[in-house]
Amino acid sequence: MRVALLANLKKNAPTWPNMSPDRWDDLDSEETIQAILEALAAGGHEATFLEGDVSLYDSLRKFKPEICFNICEGHFGNAREAVVPALLDTMRVPYTGSDVLTLALALDKPMTKRILAYHKLPTPPFQTFERVNEHLDPDMRFPLFVKPSREGTGMGVTAESIVYDEGQLRTQLRRLFDRYDQPVLAERFIDGREVTVGVVGNLASPVAWRMPENEDAPRIQRGLHFLPPLEVDMSRYPKEEAGVYTSRIKTEMAHEFHYLCPAPLPAELVEDLNWLTAATFRVTGCRDVARVDFRLDAEDGNKPYILEINPLPGLNPEYSDLCIEGKAAGWSYEYLVNRILDEAIERYDMST
Ligand SMILES: Nc1ncnc2c1ncn2[C@@H]1O[C@H](COP(=O)(O)OP(=O)(O)O)[C@@H](O)[C@H]1O
Ligand SMILES: [Mg+2]
Predict the structure, then answer these.
(1) What is the model's pTM?
(2) Ligand of minimum distance to the alpha carbon of 156
(3) Lower Cβ count inside 10 Å, N or C end of the chain?
(4) Count of domains in the chain?
């Protein structure tokens, strides 16, 4: 098929004086783009990279892809990951991955948590702040974890994200408001292991976007393929990172990633994590691929808490979690990329 790989390359991103140095940390490298193009070519496709910016309208009309492999993180707006899919929907071009509503929702952590809470799925109790001096809810107990609402790749996440008192809370709020123009999320700090679960596939309809009435029904997971969980080995990072998967670890130290995959977890806990991954995928309306990040509460028998769902998980062949999980499952990078594409092709009923 003729496939357009749509992405936002870090080196093509706009710049301006005094922009925050981490502003484009979640955009893709040429290394990743090249690897995906090669994988798609090996899968028998004619693949071309198109930058997901204002030039896209013209370049799509010129290249006329049958389908797009979309990994655009977007540049601007509070739903930046949904911007390119909105154009694709408008132009009626099929694409891999989740749609506008899901991408906008999942980018916003508090909105996602409200959906999870509505479905009684375990996510740390939280409060959002729009001003430094907003009153702290009396049921929020220290320590808290304080991070931006709509960033990824650890942006704004540092050892100072853990706050132990009002003074530290206000300092961290001020720091995040100065740097990121968006509400700040304060959550209960979950002290414990850090695990992420990748999933590929699509739910058997017609029960997406909600939980089935009988939550034990096997159909909650039908159509999804879970990759082995990956645990980030926090013990191998400098003490200054305070056991948090910080922006520094995810960017500067990305090439020396310390992980355990499959994570050494009891089979029963893996089952629970897969069920929660399926439930999160389901209630947020994901398609084709996603990755759910968890923390296991050490003080409560490793009870899993959902931190977020990533409907556009990183696809760097060397160090992205999903690719490492794929390898642990015996999937080559080439297979993983083509499998995501095939899930979309099947979903659109485009297989020949
Ligand atoms: N409530 C929390 N308790 C403990 N650690 C947290 C909490 N929220 C986030 N973290 C830490 O911060 C990291 C990044 O948070 P996450 O919500 O996954 O955002 P990102 O989009 O940057 O990946 C997590 O992987 C974890 O190490
Ligand atoms: Mg995360």
Answers:
(1) 0.97
(2) 1
(3) C
(4) 3
> Is the Cβ–Cβ distance between 72 and 30 less than 8 Å?
no
The residues lining ligand 1, judged by C-beta closer than 6 Å to any ligand atom, are 124, 145, 147, 152-154, 157, 187, 189-190, 194, 244-245, 293, 295, 307-308
For residue 126, the ligand 1 atom closest to its alpha carbon is 1
Residue-wise pLDDT for 200-244, tens only, equals 999 987 666 788 777 776 678 889 999 999 999 999 999 999 999
Domain with 159 in it: 126-188
